[in-house]
């Protein structure tokens, strides 16, 4: 599957209506972004069940600001509408493949329970998803 361009108008709908979405925040003038682009495109061809999307931070400045993008490239991963990973910098192909494997294996029911408990001010039993690579709060990696 080829990558798609996201805008402020399509971002939320894309995240909410797909199981797994990887978003590359980039700009044309950014050397590291150009370096990461073929890695991202290759991954999109290998993992056709995942939505691979790009956000041009120059064209979508409000969206980049809302996503708190501080440097580019930034890769964000969403599963079931939740951001589970965010990283600035270039990732090699094997790291992207490993990230995708980890995202597929995430125990989403446990993560949702943890988020609900944190929202209520209590920690869940068991203490996290254990993935070590996401922003779910487990940080066991």
From TrEMBL:
Residues 1-105 form the Thioredoxin domain. Pfam families: Thioredoxin (PF00085). The keyword Transport applies. InterPro entries: Thioredoxin, Thioredoxin-like_sf, Thioredoxin_CS, Thioredoxin_domain. PROSITE patterns: THIOREDOXIN_1, THIOREDOXIN_2. Keywords: Disulfide bond, Electron transport, Redox-active center, Transport. One of its GO terms (molecular function) is protein-disulfide reductase activity. PANTHER family: GEO12009P1 (PTHR45663), THIOREDOXIN 2 (PTHR45663:SF40). This is Thioredoxin. It comes from Dermacoccus abyssi.
